[in-house]
Amino acid sequence: NKRVTTADFRRMKQEGQPIAMLTAYDYPMATLVDASGIDAILVGDSLGNAVLGYDSTVPVTMDDMIHHLRAVSRGVKRSMVIGDMPFLSYHVSREESVRNAGRLMQEGLAQAVKLEGGREVVDTVKAITAAGIPVMGHLGLTPQSVHQLGGFKVQGKDREAAERLLTDAKLLEEAGAFAIVLECIPQQLAKVITESVSIPTIGIGAGVHCDGQVLVVNDLLGMFSNFTPKFVKKYANLKEQIVQACSSYREEVKNRVFPGPEHVFNMAEEELKKIY
Ligand code: KIV
Ligand code: NA
């Protein structure tokens, strides 16, 4: 099974084959997601909410990302592994941005990076791409800017905002991005953008007309989420199953049902006598 590459992304768009992408944050989940045949695994900075217990992605650091990215990379053989560039890791200077993108590749063993923004990151995307690092863009609801956007809400609903996003998508393509995540925008706008660029669009809350879809794996599995956005479909309810399993264990410990005879080790009678 050979590794999915950016060339496969391009081909899948040309052939009209939808691209399926999910997040993962650790080794065991990464091996399972890879085994499912998913095309790309994003180690998203949604790590902050999904795994680290923050209420936004803003506190996530480069070191946090690399730590989890390495674990995921060790578990993945076939999917493309994409490392998310965290807050402020690609804003201070072009040099710092290229170096941080490079760290996600060299230390995190990613095959591509993702960063948020449109026209304001075009030069950065060019510089990172020029270093031989594939870049995935991210437009619409960009969670690192949540404090500026004034909350998690649908973007690009009026004509002016929609035109701005369409232009940003074209600029990202020109800058060398190999794909663009479209988050929380009207499906009609996602369709226009998808038809206007030759690189694949990967939607999350952006409708069925995108070239691919991405979801946070914890959301799809119904794990530990207090809040489920409208665009999430739950394919399992692991939260309930995990609480159920832990409480069965607790009950069996309290009632001395666990461990059972099949879970214990024995010693010879004779040896036992010697210690008395
Ligand atoms: O961090 C993340 O998981 C993401 C995806 C939702 C696109 O950026
Ligand atoms: Na992200």
Automatic annotation (TrEMBL):
Q: Which Gene3D superfamilies match?
A: Phosphoenolpyruvate-binding domains (3.20.20.60)
Top-rank lineage group of the source organism: Bacteria
EC number of the protein: 2.1.2.11
- Name of this chain's protein: 3-methyl-2-oxobutanoate hydroxymethyltransferase
Query: Which terms does the UniProt entry file under GO BP?
Result: methylation; pantothenate biosynthetic process
- Gene Ontology cellular component list: cytoplasm
Q: In which family does this protein belong, per the annotation?
A: Belongs to the PanB family.
Residues of the active site:
183
Pfam families associated with the record: Pantoate_transf (PF02548)
